[in-house]
Write a structure and sequence with these properties.
The longest helix is centred in the first third of the chain and has 17 residues. This protein is of the alpha+beta class. The radius of gyration is 16 Å and the shape is globular. Helix 1 crosses helix 2.
């Protein structure tokens, strides 16, 4: 089983380098075009690791984030948009599984999500929908638990390759974003 995953991961990484379709069995991803740069192989590996459902990097990031937030979602940036790479909850907080698992937001979202992706600057506080994509996202994750929200871009150099969302964050911990 592990050998098959390694072969699939290697094929997917090569496809990223060639900017082609990535086939990971049940999960098909058209991954973002990788800009020409010396870091191209590194970028492709990082994007692949985030995109691959259940990858150790995805799970580790979600496990860490769920210590701060009641619910977390990790999005990977693909050519078709922001696709859910994984999600976790703790306590009584839950997601509607089908609504979250199938969520695909436009590649260049408007509103708060788009601003975080474009500026690569984290956001913390009340999540106020500013655009259609924000509203679509909120519909998929309703009801939102009490507390603050974090939107944290996953960036490699000057490119956002993912987005970490967390809600139900207790107010008042100014060091949270620095720890993430």
């Amino acid at each position: 089983m592990q050998k098959n995953l390694d072969v699939e991961a290697e094929a997917a990484a090569q496809a990223l380098l060639e900017d082609t379709h990535v086939d990971l069995g049940a999960e098909h991803l058209d991954v973002v075009a990788v800009a020409e740069s010396p870091d191209k192989p590194r970028l492709s590996r990082v994007v692949l690791e985030i995109c691959r459902p259940g990858s150790s990097s995805t799970e580790a990031l979600l496990d860490f984030a769920v210590h701060f937030a009641q619910r977390t979602i990790l999005f990977a940036s693909t050519s078709k948009g922001l696709r859910v790479a994984g999600h976790k909850t703790r306590g009584s907080a839950t997601f509607e599984g089908a609504a979250v698992d199938g969520l695909l937001l436009p590649a260049d979202p408007d509103g708060a999500l788009g601003q975080v992706m474009k500026t690569r600057t984290p956001l913390r506080g009340a999540f106020v929908p500013e655009g259609d994509v924000d509203r679509q996202f909120l519909e998929a994750i309703t009801p939102v638990p009490e507390g603050e929200t974090i939107l944290f871009p996953i960036a490699l150099h000057d490119r956002s390759i993912g987005l970490l969302y967390g809600d139900g964050v207790p107010p008042g911990d100014p060091g949270l974003l620095e720890e993430l």
